[in-house]
Specification:
The structure holds three protein chains of three kinds. Helices cover about 70% and strands about 0% of the residues of chain A. Chain A is mainly alpha-helical. Classes of the chains: A mainly alpha, B mainly alpha, C alpha+beta.
C-alpha cells in the first residue's frame, strides 16, 4: 500500500491547501474579476486596502483585542495548568472538562450564550465584550498547550530542587520555568493567532466596530473583487505565521525536555504513552503531537 | 481541605472564576432565555414554552434542522474517513516525509476559517478553478453552474476545514499504538487488511468517535458557510438562528432553535456511540493499549 | 532432550547467508544457521548484536537484504509473516487489549476458520498447557506480567506452529517470576515438543534453558554449542567473558611447549614457538584464595578490594599486571582479608584460548 497511499496523502494535503492557495493567488489579480484567466501579478488591491481607513481601524482593533485576551488567558490558564498538574483537587477533572467547553461547542451557541448573558447584565456589545469572548475562546487552547508542556517535564526535577533547599516558587522559577517557557510562549502566540482569526463568536458580541475578520465579512457582502482577497491574504499571513511559530516552539519544548540516556536499552518498539483522548482535545493533541514518537 | 493542596486551589481559582462566570453562567442564561417571552431584541421575564412549541410545530424549522443534520453527518463522515486515511499514512507509511506531512496538517487546522470558506467561491464559481480546468481539459463545453450555491458546496468547504482536525486526533491515537499488536496479528495469520480491521480499527475507535462527534456538532451548527456557499438548497438552521437574533429580534425563539440543534446533534452522536459499541469499534478494553 | 547429532534428518529451519543492512549499519553479516526439530535453541548476545533482527527475519516481520530462510525445506524468504508456519511470543506480550483471554488465544484459530467447537477445545487445552485454566473471560489489563506472558504463549502454541519464536519474553518480569517462568517454559517445551528459538541477552537464562546456544556479536555468530561446551570450551575471549565470569591472563610459551604465567605452568600448546604469547582463561572455580602456605601450584598476589554477595565474597586480587576476580566462600565475621595472599590454581581447569591475548591488561 506504499505508493498509492502516498499519492492519496499528498493529494489530501493539496486539497487542504487549495483554498488558501487560490485565495492568495487571486489577491494579486490585476483586474477586478474574481476568476480565471489570471492577469497579474499586481499589488493594486493591497494598496487599496492599506489606504482604507476601515481596514486600518479593524486591524488595530484586532491587535488590541488579541493582545488583551491573550494576556489574560495566558495568566489564568498557566496558573490553572500548574495547579491541576501538581496538586490533586477535588474538582480537577470537572474543571478540565468545563474549561474546554468553549471550543467544543459551536461558535453559534457560544456567541449566543454570551450575547444573552451580556444583555442580561446590561452590557452592550462593544470591543470589551469581544475581549471577554476571545478570552474564553482562547483559554482552553492555552490550557492544553501548557498542560502538554508540563506533562513532558520530569516532576522529579522540581522535587530535586525542593530537596536542595528551594521554596516552591524558587523551584518553579529556576527548574520548571526554564524548561517550560517555550510551551508558554507557544501558547501565547497560538492564542494571539486564534484570536485574530476568530469570527463565529465575535459576530454576535461585537457592536459597531470591526475586527479584521468582521471587516472582511462585511466587505465580502458588498464587493466582489480581489480587494477581499488582499485583506484575507493579510489575515492569513498573520494567522499562519502565528501557527507556525507556535508549533515550532512546541517542538522546541519537546526536544529540550525529553532526556534519554546513552545506554538506554531499546527493544522492538517505542511509543510514549499519552493520556487517552478526553472530550474536546483537539489542539492540545495538535500541540503535543509533533515528536510524540522519539525522533 | 488538605493544607498541602491549598496552593492548588489558589492557582486554579482564576480559571474557576472564568469558567463559572463566563461559561456556565452564559449557557445557563441562554437556556433560560429560550423559555422566556420575546421582546424586540430582548426578553420579558415571564416564562413560557411558546418558543419550543413553535420549533416543534412549524415545518420550516424542521426542514432546516434536517438539512443541518444531513450536512453535519456527511461532513463528519467525509472528514473522519479522509482524516483517517491521512493519519494512517502519516503514522505507518510516511518515512521521511512524516514530519512535513504532520506539520502541514497541523498548520492547516490553525490557518484560517472565514477566508477559506470564502475562497471556495473562487474555486467553484463559473470562472473558477474547477470549471476552467475542466474546460481546458475539454471535459465540458460550458461551465458547470451547479458547483456552487448548494448543500454540497457547503459540505466540501466544511470538510476542507475539518479533515485536518480529524486527522490529527486520529493520528495522536495511532502514534500511541504499540506496533507489536499489529505484528502479533500478522504473526497469528492476519494479512495487512485483517490486522487493520481486527486490531488497529477497534483500538482507534474512541479517537474516531471523538473526531466524528466534534465535526458533526460544529458542522451542523455552522452559519457562515451556508450563507456564503449554500444558496437556497444549502440553507441551515444556524442562519435562521442568527437571523432571529440579529434581524428579527426574537431572542427566545433563536435560543430555542439553537438549543434544539444542539440537542438533536447530541442525540445523533449518542446514536453513533451505540452503533459503534455494537459493531465492536468501541471496545471496553480499548483504552489500555 | 533433543539432540545435537540430528545430522541424519534435515534441519527444520535453515538460515542461509542471511544479510541485513539498515543504511550504513550491517545488522546481520551473511549468517548461516540450522535449527533442528524439537530443540530449544537460544540466540544470545549483547544489545545490538543482531539476535532480535535475526529472529524477526525468521518470523517475516523484517525482510533481509540478501540470503534465504527455509522452513522444513521450503523457501519462505518472500512469504509474508501470516503465511509462515511459525508463531511468535513478544517481549511485552502484545495481548490485544480489547479482547479477553479466550478471544486472544482464539485469534489465530478464528483467522484459520476453525470450527467453533474445535476452537473452544483447543483454547482450553492451550490454557491448561500454560497452567491458566478458567481465565478465559479475563481482560489483559487484569492479568499480572507472568500471567500475560503465559497467555501470549498459549495464543502462539494453540496454532500448533512448527517453530515457536520467543523475543526476550521474560525481560519485563520481576526476578522471582522470571525464574518461575523459565521452569515453566522448559516444561512447556518438553510437553509440547515444539521447536523453540529463544532470544535473550541474559546468559544465565540461556545456560539454564537451552539445548544449544548461538552466541552472536556484531551481526556474526561467535560460537554455536551446547551450554556445557560453551562454558568449558569458549572459542574466544568474548565468549568466555559473556558466559560466566572470566579471568583472562597472558602466558608465554616456553621451550617444552608449556605455557607459563607468573611462574606457573597453566597449559600446553604443542607446536607453538617459544616466546609466543597465549591467552589463558581462569574461571573463578579454578582459583582459591589462601592466606599462607598454599598448595602448589600457586601465585602470590595482593587483595585490592572485596565485594560481598551474601553467600560469597568476591576478591579483586592483583597479580603482576593483572587483577583477578576470585570467589571466597568462607565466612569472615570481622571483615574480609586484605593485603598479601596466595591464589591456588587448579591447572586442569584452565583453558587455553584460541584467539590472540588482549593487548591491554585484565582490569575489572
Amino acid at each position: 500500500m506504499r505508493r498509492p497511499g502516498g499519492l492519496l496523502a499528498w493529494g489530501l494535503i493539496a486539497f487542504l491547501y487549495l483554498p488558501v492557495i487560490t485565495l492568495v493567488v487571486f489577491a494579486f489579480q490585476e483586474s477586478p474579476r474574481l476568476g480565471l484567466p489570471f492577469d497579474g501579478p499586481s499589488l493594486r488591491w493591497f494598496e487599496a486596502i492599506w489606504n482604507d481607513a476601515g481596514f486600518r481601524r479593524a486591524l488595530w482593533a484586532s491587535v488590541r483585542i488579541a493582545t488583551a485576551s491573550c494576556s489574560v488567558a495566558l495568566v489564568v490558564a498557566t496558573l490553572a495548568a500548574l495547579g491541576l498538574r501538581r496538586y490533586r483537587l477535588r474538582y480537577g477533572s470537572a474543571l478540565s472538562v468545563a474549561a474546554v467547553v468553549p471550543i467544543a461547542l459551536p461558535g453559534l451557541l457560544v456567541g449566543l450564550a454570551l450575547l444573552t448573558y451580556f444583555s442580561s447584565v446590561g452590557m452592550r456589545p462593544s470591543l470589551t465584550t469581544v475581549v471577554i469572548a476571545h478570552t474564553i475562546y482562547v483559554t482552553p487552547y492555552v490550557l492544553m498547550v501548557v498542560t502538554s508542556g508540563l506533562e513532558q517535564l520530569d516532576p522529579s526535577i522540581e522535587e530535586a530542587a525542593r530537596d536542595l533547599g528551594a521554596s516552591p516558587w524558587q523551584a518553579f522559577w529556576r527548574s520548571t520555568f526554564p524548561l517550560l517557557w517555550p510551551a508558554i510562549l507557544g501558547a501565547a502566540v497560538l492564542a494571539f493567532a486564534l484570536s485574530f482569526d476568530e469570527f463565529l463568536i465575535t459576530l454576535f458580541v461585537i457592536g459597531g466596530d470591526s475586527t479584521l475578520p468582521v471587516f472582511i465579512w462585511s466587505r465580502m457582502r458588498r464587493t466582489i473583487d480581489p480587494s477581499v482577497n488582499a485583506v484575507a491574504t493579510g489575515l492569513l499571513t498573520i494567522v499562519i505565521t502565528g501557527a507556525v511559530t507556535a508549533l515550532s516552539l512546541a517542538l522546541m519544548a519537546r526536544r529540550r525536555t525529553g532526556v534519554s540516556y546513552a545506554d538506554d536499552a531499546d527493544s522492538t518498539a517505542t511509543a510514549v504513552p499519552l493520556a487517552p483522548a478526553q472530550p474536546g482535545e483537539p489542539v492540545r493533541v495538535a500541540a503535543g503531537v509533533l515528536g510524540s514518537e522519539n525522533g | 481541605m488538605n493544607a498541602s493542596n491549598r496552593p492548588g486551589y489558589a492557582l486554579t481559582a482564576p480559571l474557576v472564576g472564568v469558567v463559572l462566570l463566563l461559561v456556565v453562567a452564559p449557557l445557563a442564561v441562554f437556556l433560560l432565555y429560550s423559555v422566556l417571552t420575546p421582546q424586540p431584541f430582548s426578553v420579558q421575564w415571564s416564562p413560557t414554552f411558546d418558543s419550543y412549541r413553535r420549533v416543534a410545530g412549524e415545518r420550516v424549522w424542521w426542514n432546516l434542522i434536517a438539512g443541518s443534520v444531513q450536512v453535519g453527518f456527511i461532513t463528519a463522515v467525509v472528514s473522519v474517513v479522509l482524516g483517517y486515511v491521512l493519519a494512517h499514512h502519516i503514522a505507518f507509511h510516511a518515512g521521511r516525509s512524516k514530519f512535513l506531512l504532520l506539520g502541514l496538517t497541523a498548520i492547516s487546522i490553525l490557518g484560517g476559517y472565514l477566508v477559506r470558506v470564502y475562497a471556495w467561491r473562487t474555486i467553484l464559481g463559473t470562472h473558477g478553478v474547477v470549471n476552467t480546468a475542466l474546460l481546458r481539459l475539454g471535459l465540458i463545453d460550458e461551465p458547470l453552474r451547479w458547483l456552487l450555491f448548494n448543500r454540497w458546496a457547503v459540505i466540501v468547504a466544511l470538510a476542507n476545514i475539518f479533515v485536518p482536525f480529524a486527522a490529527i486526533v486520529i493520528y495522536a491515537r495511532l502514534a500511541n499504538l504499540q506496533p507489536e499488536h499489529v505484528q502479533a496479528a500478522r504473526d497469528l495469520g492476519a494479512n495487512a487488511r485483517g490486522a487493520f480491521r481486527l486490531v488497529t480499527l477497534p483500538l482507534s475507535g474512541r479517537a474516531v468517535f471523538l473526531a466524528f462527534a466534534f465535526v458533526f456538532l460544529l458542522s451542523a451548527a455552522d452559519y457562515v458557510t451556508p450563507q456564503l456557499l449554500g444558496g437556497a438548497t444549502g440553507a441551515m438552521i444556524g442562519v435562521a438562528v442568527q437571523d432571529q437574533f440579529q434581524r428579527v429580534g426574537n431572542w427566545p425563539l433563536g435560543a430555542a432553535l439553537g438549543f434544539t440543534i444542539f440537542a438533536v446533534s447530541a442525540v445523533c452522536i449518542a446514536g453513533l456511540w451505540l452503533v459503534m459499541r455494537v459493531a465492536g469499534l468501541l471496545p471496553r478494553g480499548g483504552r489500555h493499549a | 532432550m533433543a539432540t545435537l547429532d540430528a545430522a541424519a534428518s534435515t534441519p527444520l529451519v535453515e538460515v542461509k547467508a542471511l544479510h541485513k543492512e539498515y543504511g550504513s549499519v550491517c545488522a546481520l553479516q551473511k549468517l548461516e544457521l540450522n535449527v533442528n526439530a524439537g530443540e530449544f535453541l537460544t540466540l544470545l548476545g549483547p544489545s545490538g548484536c543482531g539476535k532480535t533482527t535475526l529472529l524477526r527475519c525468521i518470523a517475516g516481520l523484517e525482510t533481509s537484504t540478501a540470503g534465504r530462510i527455509l522452513i522444513d525445506g521450503r523457501d519462505v524468504t518472500r512469504i509474508p509473516p501470516e503465511r509462515r508456519p511459525l508463531n511468535m511470543v513478544f517481549q511485552r506480550y502484545a495481548l490485544f487489549p480489547h479482547l479477553n483471554v479466550f478471544d486472544n488465544v482464539a485469534f489465530g484459530l478464528r483467522l484459520k476458520k476453525v470450527a467453533k467447537e474445535e476452537r473452544r477445545g483447543r483454547v482450553h487445552k492451550a490454557l491448561e498447557l500454560v497452567h491458566l485454566p478458567g481465565y478465559e473471560r479475563r481482560m489483559p489489563h487484569q492479568l499480572s506480567g507472568g500471567q500475560a506472558q503465559r497467555v501470549a504463549l498459549a495464543r502462539a502454541l494453540v496454532n500448533e506452529p512448527k517453530v515457536l519464536l520467543l523475543d526476550e519474553p521474560l525481560a519485563a518480569l520481576d526476578r522471582k517470576i522470571r525464574q518461575f517462568m523459565q521452569d515453566e517454559l522448559r516444561d512447556i517445551h518438553r510437553r509440547s515438543g515444539t521447536t523453540f528459538i529463544y532470544v535473550t541477552h541474559d546468559q544465565d537464562e540461556a545456560m539454564a534453558m537451552s539445548d544449544r546456544i548461538v552466541l552472536m556479536r556484531d551481526g556474526r555468530i561467535e560460537q554455536m554449542a551446547a551450554p556445557g561446551e560453551m562454558y568449558h570450551h569458549p572459542s574466544s575471549q568474548f565468549a568466555a567473558g559473556f558466559i560466566g565470569d572470566a579471568n583472562v591472563v597472558t602466558g608465554r610459551v616456553d621451550a617444552g611447549g608449556h605455557i607459563a604465567w607468573q611462574g606457573v605452568v597453566v597449559g600446553t600448546q604443542p607446536g607453538a614457538s617459544t616466546g609466543e604469547e597465549r591467552a589463558v582463561l581462569l574461571r573463578p572455580e579454578a582459583l582459591r584464595v589462601c592466606a599462607d602456605d598454599p598448595l602448589s601450584p600457586a601465585v602470590a598476589g595482593e587483595i585490592v578490594g572485596s565485594t560481598y554477595f551474601g553467600f560469597y565474597w568476591l576478591h579483586h586480587i592483583r597479580v603482576g599486571d593483572d587483577v583477578l576476580d576470585v570467589r571466597d566462600f568462607r565466612r569472615w565475621s570481622d571483615g574480609p582479608p586484605t593485603g598479601a595472599c596466595w591464589i591456588n590454581i587448579d591447572v586442569d581447569r584452565a583453558v587455553v584460548m584460541a584467539d590472540q591475548p588482549p593487548t591491554d591488561r585484565q582490569e575489572h
